[in-house]
Give the backbone structure.
Amino acid sequence: MASHNELGKEGEELAAKWLSEHGYTILHANWRHSHYEIDIVATKGKFLHFVEVKARKASPFGYPEDSVTKKKFKNLQKAADEYLFLNPGSDWIQYDVISITMNGKEAEYF
């Protein structure tokens, strides 16, 4: 597996762990429909959360969340629309981005 894929997988695992530790219930990881994907679908309280995870090694070239472009967000919305069509019943939804910067063995969450 390419190193950026390994970093992405590790970032998603760290994000799921962080969410679980903060009271979220993970429903799906890497939920797919057609060519759309949602990194994490989770619930907390009355909200259904659609979570995009971005991870990078420490870099002077910007933060991981900077790579969530308008097009990427639109794709997340389309995937969420499909999820809601296939899984009706959620009145409250929220889109979240978890940004993780890897500093050696430590990770910073934003």
Observations:
- The chain has two helices and five strands.
